[in-house]
């Protein structure tokens, strides 16, 4: 595998784009060697779903598009990021018992911690932000001895 791989897609800030973002992310990581049925793929689906949903729902119409970025470094770490053009950083909303939203970043932080990763939020030069999650790459690179075994 290459030392560094990157991919990205820009989608309209529309609820239908959340499914497209999930499919793009998992499809790309599958091309890079992550089995689509692996637990890590399910984790990526959920993280991308939450980040994309936030980019669609919480930008208040100030971000007509959002971009999903993926990067794999040295078969060690994978970065998943979503960039939108709204300047407000995500914040935890008070979660009432009956409330259906406001827990996305809590879920993302919990999943990241569970897999030994981290979450970052950074401003963009254009005035928006990127929320990124870095996780250990769960696919072990095949060694020469693995390839020689029947």
Automatic annotation (TrEMBL):
The keyword Endoplasmic reticulum does not apply. Keywords: ATP-binding, Kinase, Nucleotide-binding, Serine/threonine-protein kinase, Transferase. CDD domains: HATPase_RsbW-like. The keyword Heme does not apply. InterPro entries: Anti-sigma-factor_SerPK, HATPase_C_sf, HATPase_dom. It comes from the Bacteria. GO terms for molecular function: ATP binding. Residues 11-132 form the Histidine kinase/HSP90-like ATPase domain. This is ATP-binding protein.
């Amino acid at each position: 595998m290459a030392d560094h791989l990157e991919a990205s897609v820009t989608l309209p800030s529309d609820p239908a784009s959340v499914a497209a973002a999930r499919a793009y992310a998992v499809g790309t990581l599958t091309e890079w060697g992550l089995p689509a049925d692996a637990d890590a793929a399910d984790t990526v689906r959920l993280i991308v779903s939450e980040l994309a949903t936030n980019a669609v729902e919480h930008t208040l119409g100030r971000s007509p598009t959002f971009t999903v970025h993926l990067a794999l470094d040295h078969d060690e770490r994978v970065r998943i990021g979503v960039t939108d053009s709204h300047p407000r950083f995500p914040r935890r909303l008070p979660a009432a018992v009956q409330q259906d939203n406001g827990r996305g970043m809590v879920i993302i932080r919990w999943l990241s911690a569970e897999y030994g990763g981290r979450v970052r939020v950074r401003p963009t030069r254009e005035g928006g932000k990127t929320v990124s999650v870095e996780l250990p790459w769960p696919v072990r690179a095949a060694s020469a001895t693995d390839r020689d075994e029947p």
